[in-house]
């Protein structure tokens, strides 16, 4: 495991978006002792399978799993995540998440949402999604959104049960928490990311929601 490397991992099906994503990463401030690398997985059957493939290809201790349409705009990003990861209890960091989920499994509608990210959910418009107050350095959450998921430990993604592009993030959040790690959303004095997602493909959303509920919610109720 290379303690001085940060790997940026992306499932790619739009080369133009991915090049823009890399443009922002290449303009980050990088500590002298840190190397960065890119791992792109193309023609993946699911995000979970893509992320497992990429995880196994890289020896970096720190891995940043991000969508091809996530653009990191805070140039101090690497310094900020490395500072947070000095706490070895923190397993995974995101910029949008929620505390408390009900038996639907949909954290963004039925939990205490803690989010700070620029979003283009309405095509042609960019707006700040900012919910929840973080008084300290971070807040612990139950689930983070998959737009960006930053880890300092390798835990296998559940490609065995999740196909397609939904609920892999909720699943991985639970996998980290089940192993005793904290999943957090940090205080962002300067916003870290833009998520240029536009309209979201909802194919297989409901199928994966039911799988998530069966695997992680019902067993705990």
Question: What's the helix and strand layout?
Answer:
Layout lengths: L1 E11 L2 H12 L8 E8 L4 H11 L2 E7 L3 E3 L4 H8 L5 E4 L2 E4 L7 H4 L1 E8 L7 E5 L6 E3 L2 E2 L3 E4 L16 H11 L3 E5 L6 E3 L9 H13 L4
Parallel strand pairs: 1-2, 1-3, 5-12, 7-13
Antiparallel strand pairs: 3-11, 4-13, 5-11, 6-7, 6-10, 7-8, 9-12
- Rg calc: 16 Å
CATH topology name, in short, is Spore Coat Polysaccharide Biosynthesis Protein SpsA, Chain A
Number of strands: 13
Q: Number of helix segments?
A: 6
Helix content: 25-40%
Q: Detail the poorly predicted runs.
A: none
CATH architecture: Alpha-Beta Complex
Whole-number tally of structural domains: 1
Protein name: Glycosyl transferase family protein
InterPro entries: Nucleotide-diphossugar_trans, StrF_dom
Keywords: Transferase
Organism: Clostridium bornimense
């Amino acid at each position: 495991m290379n303690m001085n490397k940060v790997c940026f991992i992306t499932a790619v099906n739009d080369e133009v978006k991915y090049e823009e994503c890399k443009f922002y990463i290449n303009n980050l401030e990088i500590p002298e002792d840190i190397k960065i690398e890119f791992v792109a997985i193309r023609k993946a059957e699911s995000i979970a399978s893509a992320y497992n493939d990429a995880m196994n290809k890289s020896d970096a201790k720190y891995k940043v799993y991000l969508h091809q349409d996530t653009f990191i705009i805070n140039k101090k990003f690497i310094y900020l995540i490395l500072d947070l990861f000095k706490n070895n209890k923190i397993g995974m960091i995101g910029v949008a998440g929620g505390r408390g989920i009900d038996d639907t499994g949909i954290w963004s509608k039925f939990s205490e949402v803690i989010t700070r990210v620029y979003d283009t959910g309405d095509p042609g418009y960019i707006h700040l999604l900012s919910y929840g107050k973080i008084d300290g350095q971070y807040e612990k959450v139950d689930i983070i959104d998959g737009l960006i998921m930053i880890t300092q430990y390798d835990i296998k993604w559940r490609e065995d049960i999740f196909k397609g592009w939904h609920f892999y993030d909720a699943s991985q959040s639970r996998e980290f928490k089940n192993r005793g790690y904290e999943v957090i959303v940090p205080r962002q004095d300067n916003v870290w990311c833009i998520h240029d997602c536009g309209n979201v493909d909802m194919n297989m959303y409901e199928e994966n929601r039911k799988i998530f509920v069966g695997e992680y919610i019902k067993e705990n109720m």
